[in-house]
Amino acid sequence: MKTFPDFTKEPTEESKITNGDNLAKAKTYAQESSNDAPEPDFGSFDEEFIIAKKIEEKKAKTGIAPKKITTQPSTSFKIDFQEEPTSGYRNRTIKNASADATIALAYDFTSAGEKLTKSSVLNQNKKYIPLSIPRKTETSDVNNAPIKTIVDSVVEKLNSVNATTLNIAGNGIYTMRDAGWNQEEVDVMTYRVLKGIVESPNLINKIVSIRSGGQTGFDEAGAKAGIKLGIPTTILAPKGWKFRNESGTDISNEQAFKARFASTQPSMINNLEGTEFEVTKCRED
Description:
It is a single chain. The protein is of the alpha/beta class. The protein folds into two domains: 46-71; 77-281, 3-Layer(aba) Sandwich (Leucine Aminopeptidase, subunit E, domain 1). Helix content is 35%, strand content 14%. It is built from ten helices and nine strands. The chain has helices spanning 23-32, 47-62, 90-96, 112-123, 148-160, 173-176, 183-198, 218-228, 254-259, 267-271; strands spanning 80-83, 101-106, 127-132, 165-170, 209-212, 233-237, 242-244, 250-252, 280-281. The strands form two sheets. It has a seven-stranded mixed β-sheet with strand order 1-6-5-4-2-3-9. Strand 2 (101-106), helix 4 and strand 3 form a beta-alpha-beta unit. The radius of gyration is 19 Å and the shape is globular.
C-alpha cells in the first residue's frame, strides 16, 4: 500500500550551525528549512496585497486583468509567538499540553520528548491522540494513499471530549530525517490531516485555536497548518527561542526561530487538494 509523498527533490542534509555562528548563517538555515522562503519580513504579511500586486502587474503588461486567481483562503490571523520564561523544554511542553486534545505525530514514540508530551497530556486529564508515521519508502506517495479513516478516528476522539483547542506535537525533523522525510513533506502531511479534521462534517465543535512548541518537524508543521486554515495559532517557544535543526544542533536566536514561519508557501498545498495519504493509529495508553 502506498503511504506518504515521494517528491522528486531528495531531502538534503543541512549544514550544522553552532551557537558561535553568526545570525546570517542561522537565517540561511531557517530560510532553507522553510521551502526556500524569501528573506522574512516580520511586519504585516498581507496575502491580499500580494494578489492585488500580481493583478496590477498583469494589467501593466497586457492591459487585461486575469479572470480569476485561486489561492488559499485569506486570513488576518498571525502566529502568536510567546517565549517560555523558564529554561528547558519541560514547562513549555506541559503548558502546551493543557489544550483539550494533543495530536502527536511521530515515527519514534520512544524519544524523551514524546514521552514527556504523553505524560503531560494524561497528567492534566486531556485527550492524547497519537498518529504513527511510517518510514518513507520508494512507493510512498501522498497523492494516492487514503486518509479518511484516520481523520474520522481523530474526529471521533475529539468529539468524545468536546475538544475546541488542539496542541500539535511530534518528532523533530532531525528524527523524521532518519525515517526519510524532510520538513516540506512533514508540512504537507500535517496540513492535510488538520484540514481533513477541521472540515469534517462529523466534527461537533469548531476548533478555535491551535498551539505548538514551535520546534522543527511536526511542531513547526502544525503552526503553519493552523495559519493556513485560518485558525488562531500560538507558539510557546523555549526560553531563548531555542530550536533544534536537522542535524540535531540547538540554535538560540529569535529571528531565526521566527523566520521558519515567515512564509508558508501555498504552491505545493494547492496542488494537493483532493489527494489522500495514510497514517497509522497508535494506542493511546
